Amino acid sequence: MTGPGPSVLHGVRRALGTAAARIYLAGWALLLGWALVVASEGSMAVVIPLFATLPASLVLLIVLPEGGMMFLLSIVLGALINAMVIGWCARALRRGDTPDTAS
Length: 103
Known about the structure:
Blueprint: H1 4-16, H2 19-38, H3 47-52, H4 56-63, H5 68-95
Helix pairs in contact: 1-5, 2-5, 4-5
């Protein structure tokens, strides 16, 4: 029996497997690493990775409870959501008018 679970995971894997999504995630990881190294008490460097993951991270910030770990979780999940959207768009643009038989 095939349920919606494996096909959803397969679609996420395909979306995150595109070069555009991987480049976005690599750039975001570099920004986050830089912000965590540079950040001090009262530094605004952590806002840069947040801006790189808008609008998904902003929605998650509103929904999730307050706290430092929740802030980091919202940025990480926002980056993954944005990478999936970028990968989906890259696949759709590459496909053009031909239907995707794999989905």
